[in-house]
Structures are given as C-alpha cells and as structure tokens.
Amino acid sequence: MNILKFARLLKYFFRIGILLAVLAWALSGYSKFRLAKDGELCAAWGAGVAENASALARAKGRAECVHSRANPLERFFFSNTYETLNALPNAPCKYVGVWTRTAPGNVYKYMLDDAGNFSATRITEGRDDGATRYTGSWGYWRGRFVWFVNDHEQWPPDVNPVISEDADRLTLREHDGSVSQFTRLNAVESKACGTSGVSVAEVNTTATDADTSTPPSAPADTIDTSGLLQKRQSAPPVGDWAGAYAASGHLEGDTATQLTVAADGSTSGSLQCPNTDEAPAKNETGTLVAEHEWYELGAVSVNANDTCRLPARYYPLAWGGRHYLLSEPALIYVVNQLNAGQAVDPTLLLRRSDGASATWPTDKQPTLPKPYSEGLLKTPLLAHAANFGGVGATSPSEILHPPPNGVEYGARGTIDVGSRVGVFEGMRLYAPTGPAGLNIIVGKVLIDSANVRLTWRGDWRPAATLDVSSHP
Prior knowledge:
By secondary structure, this protein is α+β, with helices and mostly antiparallel strands. The protein is built from 5 helices and 22 strands. It is globular.
C-alpha cells in the first residue's frame, strides 16, 4: 500500500514538473517576444542620445529604454545584455593594436584603439559579404567581444565569444557558427597602454560617447613594447621578385596568364576572363607593394566596377629553384593537391622565367602562409555528404544542345565536419562512388559542418548520403 502511495506521489510531482516546465517555456518565450518588441519601440527613442552619437552610445540608450519598460521577469532575461552594455566602454590594452581578421570569403584589417573605437578595411578581393570599410566601437566583457558599427543599428548587439587566444592571436565564434581568426600585425601608439607603434589617425568618423573620454595620460616617455610582439614574416622587397611571370594553364578563379614586375613594383599583366575565348582577354597595369606577408596589387588602368580583374593579392614563394607569385586560388589549388597526395602542376602557377626547370619537389612540403598552411591535413579527412538539393543543369543551353560528353548537372549539399577538423572554403573532396568527373567543392564553413557544391556530367544523381574524403 505504501508503494502505491509513493508511486501516486511521484506521478503527481511528475505532472507538476511538466506543468512548471511548460509554464517556464511559455513565460520565457513571451518575455523574449516582449523584449524584442520593446527593442523595436526604443530604437527611435535612444535615451536622449544625439543623432550623431556613436553606435555604442545609441545601443546603450536603447538598452536603458528597454530596461525601463521591462517587468522583473523580462529584466531577468535581459540582464546579460544590459550588464554587458553597462560595462562598456572597456578596451583592455592587450587587445589594442592592428589586427587582420580572416573569415570565410574575406580578410579585413582592424585597428582597435584604447578608447574603444575601431576601423576595419577589407583587404581582399574575395567573396564580398560586407562593406570595404567601416568604423564603430568595440569592447570586451567576460570572454566576449562586442561590436557596434556606425551607421548600422544592430540589435541585439553583435557579440562574439572568444574560443581561444594567445598573445597575438584570437579565435572568435560568429553568430552563424563560423569562426574568424584575428592575428596581430602591430602595436598602436597609446599613452594609456604605454605602447608606441602605428599612429591612430581617425578611427571613428562620428562623434564618440561622452563616457569614452581619453584615459589619464601616462608619462610623456611611453614604453615601446612593439618589440615584444611575435615577429611576423614579411614579404621580401618587390625588387627581389622582379621579372616576367607566366602560367601555361588556367586555374578556376584565377584570371592571370602573364605578369611582368619591374624593380620599382610597376606591373603589366594579361588576364583571361571567365567564359571568354579571347587570348589574351585583357591587359592591366598597376603597382605591386609589399604588405605583411604578401604583395598588394593596385590596378591603375581598369574600370573599378569591372569584375574581371587581376587578383589584388599575391604571395611570393621560392620553391624548387623557381620564384612564384601565388594568388588565393593558386594557394587553394596547391593545398588541395597536397591533401589529395597528387602532384602540383607548376605550369598552372605564375612562375618567373628564370631558366630553372618547372618542377615541384615532392619529398617535402613548402612553407605556405597562414591560413592556407592550416588547411594542410596530416591525415585524410573523412566525411558524409547529405541534404542534397537544387539538382539541375548548370547551363540551360546544354539541355537544348547537349555536348558530346553529356549535360553538366549541379547540386548543393552539406557535410558533417567543419573548421574544427581543418575544412576550409574551396577545399576539394572526392567520393568513391559516382561519375568519373564528379567535382565536390566546399563552400561556406561552420565549426562542425560545411556547405558543398557538386557538379558532374551524365544522368547520375547523388544518393541520400555520400561518403567523401580529401584524398581520392
């Protein structure tokens, strides 16, 4: 009898627990809905902050508005955001400096100053997922970076948790789960932090917060700590790489076929645009300037809106007795070939005509710049591709006029591994089953997954799942 009573009591408490869980879920959802609506209503209120105030000041004004309208339960759910904004500006000296931010598709150069202001400039010609330059406020609080971009109202604020860090490197997690890598390039001049280095000219183009005033000045003789920074490899003088370069073949995504570099860095190049049969398609002149580990190519004879351009960045590589200028597509090609255990064809790369034979040593691997060197795998990567969709012909004209080798089809899918195990955008994968010409290229990469694009010729269709590897 006691056992029956105990069982009934357990059943009673179990039902009460379920009801409480449902109630908590409902209250949580309703509170977050209310907070979102209050955020929209407070967007125009701004707590009396001037219209030309910084993004941080406007965000803090909105937070005060939301907090004042919230009930005790809503304030509980809002407390994390509210406490974070109240703790800002907070710009720890160990993060003040000049950094590069590498993320799928683009590389930006960031300057973070000691007053909590930042500027970011895009320095690649990769996939354009943002502005070429923007400014705003930055802060750090409890293991998270918080960003506020001027002229862009983002709510809730852009918060990136720190995954890992050392003296000169940070790894942050983005909202979509992808990873961005920050690498320090230089110190900045800062009396507050006692450092000398790059002068911060004008980081923010709009007014800053009243509470982001310059901290008390340090002694006039600042301490130069730039020597404590980890030494970064720098590109050799451009004159050392002067000469005539040519690529006999053509890599997908790389337009250059010839490039002549003078001792003063001036360049003249020929390029082959996609989907054209002209040879050469275009000519382009410019100037090559050393920038960190690479050379930046500034074109002077083309339309800025022209999408068919020479790559904006070249990495110098001396390997196998030859001098190379490697673009991003060329570096991805090299990494994919090495991961697949296949020979690198040097004739596809821009190489200097210096009389040496075009051979690529196979007994060792070249020293590639980051982040490309991090894509070299010690063991083959294994994954499963699935969620295939968007299957169809890549060119409608081929359906009307099929080529002798068959119509090319394409499909999108995903794989179950990501950047955590070395997957990178542009990585090539292989499948043991499927047509001989099956091409699998990685697109957007998250921490534990990635998008892939499949192309093939013929009537084959992918099964529900497909085993893939970095090595054929």
